[in-house]
Fold these 2 entries.
Entry 1:
Amino acid sequence: MKKYLMLSILSFCILSSSCKRTDTVPESTPIIDTVSTIQPTVKADDNFMKAMNTMIVKMNAIKMTNDYDFDYPKMMIVHHQGAIDMALMEVETGTDKKIKAIAQNIIVVKTEEQSTLKEILQDAKPKKHKIKEIHPEMQNAMAAMMKEMKAIQLTGNTDRDFITMMIPHHEAGIEMSKSLFFHSKNTQLKKRAQKEINEYTKEVKEFQNWLSVHK
């Protein structure tokens, strides 16, 4: 009898706990629980690290609504800006013609994509969802990117440092874009996300090939 009573109590507790997950999440919930800025390994004022830290802080400051079609564009606008800022540095001080050309293309393409995402958000309003956990995929992608970047050893070579920083940046963008397909109902956003995945995947391969040759 005691055994059945304990099972009943346990079942009730589990159900009660599950029910609590339907509480509406405050809009102020950040995408990353904590942000520890990445410290440069070459010099304290390294501009690549500054650009990346600025991007991470701004992404963390975004107020999540739990509406993926609203939150994803907001996140990617900031994510694109991080790529643009680093690409500008590569164009200005890099020496490898191929990498500088890729950086110039990133500036043009990501600026255009920012404009498109801003247009999507212009008249958009977030829908209310009652789910406790907010976008774990975005959190996981950002956490993985931060972990990888903290292990980066900068060399002082602009081309190499640009590529080394952009690989985890792009990988995070790929993961966030992939997660959109599990949550979004917006056909336009899905097309943008697929384009994002294709572009970033291509560039990551180009970066990795360059690193394998320039050891």
Entry 2:
Amino acid sequence: MGSAASAHSGQKPPCSLKNRLLDKCEKPRSTHDFSDCVSRVLCSPQHLMKCNMSDTDLSYSSSLSEDSISYGCHYPMYTMDMATFLSLDTLRPHEEMQQKGRVHQWKRGDGPIIFLSHQWTSFSHPDHTNKQLHTVQAVLRAIIRGEMADLFTDPFEWRAFARANAPFTTTSLHGEWELLSPQGMAEEVAHSQIWIDYACVPQYAENQKERLLAIDSIPWYIDHSMNFFVVVPPIEHSELPGVSCDYYSWKQRGWCRLEEQVQELGLAPLQQAHLHRRPVVIHGERAVSSFDAHDNFYTGWNQTTSIFHGDFTCCRFNHIAKVIENGKEVERAIPCDKERIRPMVAALWDRKIAHEAEMPRDVKSLSMWRWISHKSIMLADDHAEEDDAQLKCLDDITTKYMLLTHGMEGFIKDQMYQCESHISLTRIFFPDLPADRLAGFMEYNTAYKDLMKHPEKHLLQVCLSHVVAEGHLGMVRLLHEEHGADLHFHHPWGLSMLEYAAGKGHCRVLKYILDHGGAAHINDKTPRIGISALDRACKAGLLDVLRLLVEYGVSLETTRFDGSSAVHAAASMGHVHILRELHTLGCNMSAPNLAGDTPRMIAKRCHHLRAAAFLESLE
């Protein structure tokens, strides 16, 4: 069991992190203040926490401090059948569940798995109020009754989820895809197995070695799960008054981000992306949502969603825990979980890239660049922007992104396929797009095709888009100053390089573009739905980018075509820090969009209660 304690002594522990990272770890990175707390773990034969105060086993600190996690099943995956899970009155530790025969080793043929991801609400119990358990039980019962479509607070999200849950499936390009139905989902869930950490991972002190092996196996468990449910009904933390455990706080946790990223990096090919479904986020007994495919594409894979920018308890407490040994309280160094998981996360990205490289060319041309360009962003452990030392010339870029694998003719063919795919996807995902905006998008697409008449120039611009997305200022400078690349080039989606840099949080690249003519285009919007650089920064929660855009004179009144403002963008993602900044800058915090929705209404609809409360306090 664990409890909060007084402030720690301030002594820095030995750690495999570099000193500069230790310095950064002294202050919390999220909006929650845990600075008054010290990890205190009682080494007794009672259940331990999975990852709240000490994310690693203290008795193995010395041997694990330099160790790392490798991907694989290091400990059997235990699950429970649906009937057993629905009968629980409270969550019990794994050992007790195993003794009573309520969990068993999963084997193929047992049925699909629902992986339940959640944030612990107490230092000694994962769900001290049982609210998470009762909420997910109510949702599962409703799904089994065939009511899943009714649980989504936004009908569009159910339609998107039902479309095989893949925003970029090749079936969407070449024909009709099979839709999930509430009845089909009911049958599947009724026969599903449940995985949840407390019941399926060893908890007792005498099983600490097995517990670590199970925690290290979580990526493998997720890979073998059909559904990924995020359980986040708002609950106040038991030992931290005023700290709410909800969807926003879940997204800040490093371990939760790891689970989410593993789910995103699943190996199902795009034609079978329904095998790794879009997550279901459970906010209440009759309130679920999912990730918006369009917004997730543009706000995912940036600094604000990186595992290594997330909150890790070991870093919060400067890698020191207080332990009771022989009746005395002593300080013990604990390893840094970020360092332990880094090789495994890198291997997952390498695995995904290698897997995508084996896909058919049409699939590869659509998605390969995303995985390659985003790997370095997602593995960075601080917000410092660094160039890829292996990129020194244009040939290095074409090699890294495999652009000329099939020669220049093959490259142009792949690019032409991208253009046609983007048109098809636009008609699928934006069926109600007004004719004038569709025409505007087609103009961009036509201009992109015209550029293909000049293959060398087109190759240059594609290389530019990749290094901008990855944040390599040196290569952006080289392509522009030595090769004549156009910094105001638009991707076939309509995104400008300025928007790319803003959306990914690359302030150095963004400033360079602004200093070289980009300021004149600072308020430009994409032709389909009118997203601007300001919108992207606010939606992604990138405060430094927002401030840089303001410095260069961005219009804070810029809106999407539906009238949604930067305030709406921040509210939709729950970014209170962005909302505070916009309020300080004098933005209208309650102006409705064309549908009559105010930012507060959007925040509430998206279940961001803290953002909604902040906006309400301003009215």
